[in-house]
């Protein structure tokens, strides 16, 4: 009987399957988000919830949202990154 036989551990049932599923899941989520950023680059403004205006604190009137400048939309963060790389590709450097 050898010494190594006493230190042998039982193998876990499916470590390679888990090692393949997690990167595949992360790649799928990333590609899905980039697809959403490509198809729908704008999202409703987080501050005014897409209305384009916000209630004023002191007066009883509403004022334009300064974050979206009254459009009610803002560019997704992923689309901003895609636009950066597109500009980098087109102009060959920073703007
Ligand atoms: Zn807004």
- List how many beta strands DSSP finds: 4
| Run of helices and strands | HHEEEEH
* Alpha-carbon Rg, integer: 25 Å
Order of the strands making up the biggest sheet: 1-4
Spell out which ligands are present.
Answer: zinc ion
Structural class: alpha+beta
Describe the secondary-structure layout.
Elements: H1 4-7, H2 15-39, E1 42-44, E2 53-55, E3 62-64, E4 73-75, H3 77-91
Bound molecules: zinc ion.
Description:
By secondary structure, this protein is of the alpha+beta class. The protein has one domain (17-91). It has three helices and four strands, in the order ααββββα. It has helices spanning 4-7, 15-39, 77-91, and strands spanning 42-44, 53-55, 62-64, 73-75. The strands form two sheets. Strands 1-4 form a two-stranded antiparallel ribbon. Strand 2 and strand 3 form a beta hairpin. Helix 2 (15-39) packs across helix 3. It is elongated, with a radius of gyration of 25 Å. The protein starts with a helix and ends with a helix. Zinc ion (ZN) is lined by residues 45, 47-48, 52, 65, 67-68, 72.
Keywords:
single chain; 95 residues; alpha+beta; two-stranded antiparallel sheet; two-stranded antiparallel ribbon; 3 helices; 4 strands; binds zinc ion
């Amino acid at each position: 009987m050898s010494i190594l036989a006493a230190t042998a551990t039982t193998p876990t049932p499916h470590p390679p399957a888990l090692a393949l599923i997690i990167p595949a899941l992360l790649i799928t989520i990333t590609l899905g988000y980039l697809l959403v950023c490509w198809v729908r680059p704008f999202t409703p403004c987080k501050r005014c919830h897409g209305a384009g205006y916000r209630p004023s604190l002191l007066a009883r009137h509403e004022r334009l949202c300064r974050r979206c400048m009254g459009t009610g939309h803002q560019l997704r963060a992923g689309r901003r990154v895609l636009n950066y790389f597109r500009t980098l590709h087109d102009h060959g450097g920073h703007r």
